[in-house]
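Write out the 3D structure for:
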Amino acid sequence: MTSIRILHLADLHIGMENYGRLDPATGVNGRVMDFLRRFSEAVDYALANEVDLVLFAGDAYKTRDPNSTYRREFARRIKRLAGAGIPVVLLVGNHDLPAQDKRASSIEIFRTLEVPNVLVASHDHLHTITTRRGAPIQVATVPYPIRQRLLTQDEHKDMTIAELDALVQQVVAENIQALADQVDPSLPAVLVGHFSVSDAQYGSERSVMLGRDVVVLKSVLAVPAWDYVALGHIHRHQELNGGQQPPIVYAGSLERIDFGEEKEPKGFVVADVRRGHTEWEFHRVQARRFVTIRQDVRDHADPLAALLETISRHDIADAIVRVIVQARPEQEGLLRDGDIRRALGEAYFVASISKEMERNYRQRLGGESPEELTPAELLAHFLQSKNTPPERVDLLLQHAEEIFQGEP
């Protein structure tokens, strides 16, 4: 059987503007253009390399209500694929969901206009799709699980958060199994989903996820019904099935969001799918580099010279850069921001210049030893040292307490 070539990508988050400035050529924030250019790289690859099907595993935009410019730029790139006869599956992710039930998702317009070769997947369903070269393939779609749709009001009554999470996990697993039971074993079959899977390693999506997460057990996906499992939602690219069939793959996000993703490769996945066997490869894109420069100048007679020399050893051209320098209190006046910023002139954006003075550590803890404090107390001290508003501290501590207690 001839293999079907699939391009799998996810988590564009168009509209992410952090560390950006206006791009005068387009009138759009430069960081938004970064994400759009990475998407264009994937589209260019699909058109040049005979891709038969594109699976977009959710989260087209950063927000649920993107502006018209962002919608236009996303649609332009989808049109290039669809116009070339490449079917595109657009899965609804958590950032694509409307704020209220019954409202349209941010990608619903493609279904409303009945755009040829574009399938908007907003429900669990097994589709049979004719690919670019005419070969059929089964695509099971599992959009981001919405608790209100999965559970009835009676089931909510008198249940704890942990019990609700367990029930939702069970319902999602049963729904995926029901899709697997519908698969025609004579045709290749893939599952595309937008959710978290047990054993996956998280990236910076923790800072942009909306609401509590549903976690699907890996064993639910590692079944012979599927020849490939294409996932979105977690920004770190990874394969979860240890090289076994079927590959269970997070494509990861196409562009870095913050310094938590500084070392992560970014790109998309190309999979050659046959019934019973799939080979796949990760393709890196030219994501904007994030560079952290750290320097301890406490033992240097000329702290500024030491820091500038360290900066000179880093490739910062067109990168988003942060500087973290440890110094003694009496050295603070010698570390002039203007001199440091001039040394960072080749950077695309200077995110921060952080001077960690010895006295700050003592002030943060109020003279107490870190070993004597609980995690919550340490976090409270840290937030207070950053001049976080009291109401914000209370809210963050409430959420942190759930994490400390082991609740999602």
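Residues 334 and 365 are 26 Å apart (CA to CA).
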